[in-house]
Amino acid sequence: MEALVGDCMKTYYQKVVSTFNNKVNKAAREKYNLCLVRDPDKDFSRNRKLDMVTLIKAIVLSSGKPIREELYDYFDYSRSTATSSAFVQQRAKLKPEAFEYVVKEFNRAYPCTETYKGFRLIAVDGSDLSISYDISDEETYVPNCEGFRGRNLIHINSAYDILNRRYVDTIVKGTKHTGEQYSMYTMAERFYDKAIFIADRNYSTWNNMEHIIKAGQFFLVRVQDIHSRTSNLRKFNLPDSEFDLDVETVLTMKQTNEVKAHPDKYRMLSKSSTFDFVSKDNPYYPVKYRVVRFRIDGNEEYESIITNLDRTHFPAEEIKKLYNLRWSIEISFRHLKYSADLSAIHARNRNSIRQEIWARILLYNLCIIMIQEAIKHKTKSLKYVYTVNITRCIHIIRNLAKRKGGIPPDLEKLLLNELLPIRPDRLDLRKVKNQSVVCFNYRFS
Q: How far apart are CA 135 and CA 151, in angstroms?
């Protein structure tokens, strides 16, 4: 009864951290049943300073400092602080799946409730993460064509809930095996709610779109415009203006005279292309999609969108609006890498790097849940729409979660000190450049 009363007196923010702690403890209890450690016969079987629970929390709540200083921060500069060597040895026993398990359990504890016309809006995209240089790592090594040394990259494919601002699924691969289309339809196939998957033109393949339809889900994908030689829309008789039309064709790998004579009816797939729905027994596969083409605001250029959404409930203007919402995943990648310090990983070992990717996703989701709650209560009383400085708020929450006293009751006031106005009409050109790995010798302390 005392525990129940104490839990009722906790603030919402303290309960979130308590849930995080409970899920980490659950992973530690189930480590052998769920195969979350490398050697179930001996790993984490003895009492140590860095037991499994402490190790997971230390990795999740770390920032971009050297390992030794991260440990000092976590152990509050105690004389009994674990050594860097002990940390490296202990984390080698842990599989990345341990962090993935905690992420999914935590998301189940705080389900996403915001929807658009009953649909979850899921943006899908990928982002490269620079990791330590290793020319022998064939999975991640990318040579430089200009004669300089190459670099190593890990590719993160994520499904991001736009309205709830939460990562809901992730597939991590080396850049030589990015498999972006495979990642998108795989995440769609294992998604349990009705959703609209929104993606950029890297995902506009026949195979990807058909897999999503077969999974009973909906998609909205940008494609190369009608004039592009590589566009899915080539050979269709489409007007050079704004339109909202249906297109249909028959996909096949056969090169018969019938197929060659009717390019308006058939679309011949190359031998190098992947399409899982044609075979010797079923050589022809009809497809039908809706295409929406609109002019970019303040520009003479056009964007083309392929979708399977019904035009009665989702007119062309809404399709344009929904695609614009996809940009939120780009912003989330920036916060994941620089606010949550994913760009400053603490390892060279590839499994340890995967641990940190999942750890940063967990930290991001945990912080966003708290931030959303604070904004929801405050903005009801304000005339204009405000958000908070995500970078500062993640820094505050991470540091407070490491303290022995835990999250203070007045955390909401601290977060709301970082209010920023939303200026939707501001435009700024995107500055894209390659980001190098943050070398271990140049971490701030």
A: 8
Three-state secondary structure call for residue 12: helix
Q: What is the rounded CA–CA span in Å between residue 61 and residue 74?
A: 8
Place of tokens 């400092």: 65
Backbone phi and psi for residue 10, each to the nearest 5 degrees, phi listed first: -70, 150
Higher-confidence position of 298 and 39: 39
Classify 191 in phi/psi space as left (phi over 0), alpha (psi -120 to 50) or beta.
beta
Three-state DSSP state, 271: coil
Q: Which of 85-89, 185-189, 431-435 has the lowest mean pLDDT?
A: 431-435
Amino acid at 21: N
Backbone φ, ψ for residue 59 (5° rounding): -75, -45
For 313-349, the pLDDT digits (tens) are 999 999 999 999 999 999 999 999 999 999 999 999 9
Residue 235 backbone zone (phi > 0: left; psi -120 to 50: alpha; other: beta): left
d(CA 249, CA 268): 10
How do the domains of the chain map onto residue ranges?
A: 2-103+346-442
Contact 63, 70 (CB under 8 A): yes
| Residues 233, 226 contacting (CB under 8 angstroms) | yes
- 416, 40 Cβ separation under 8 angstroms: no
Which distant-in-sequence residues (6+ apart) come within 8 Å of 144 by Cβ?
Answer: 150, 151
| Element at 413 (helix H, strand E) | helix 411-416
CA max distance for the chain: 81
- For residue range 163-205, list pLDDT tens digits in order: 999 999 999 988 766 688 999 999 999 999 999 999 999 899 9
Cα–Cα–Cα angle for 210, 159, 288, nearest 5°? 20
Closest CA to 215 of 195, 230, 232: 195
CA distance 367 to 445: 23
Start-to-end CA distance of the chain, whole Å, equals 45
Round to whole Å and give the CA distance between 50 and 85.
11
Distance CA 387, CA 218 (A): 30
Contact 226, 240 (CB under 8 A): yes
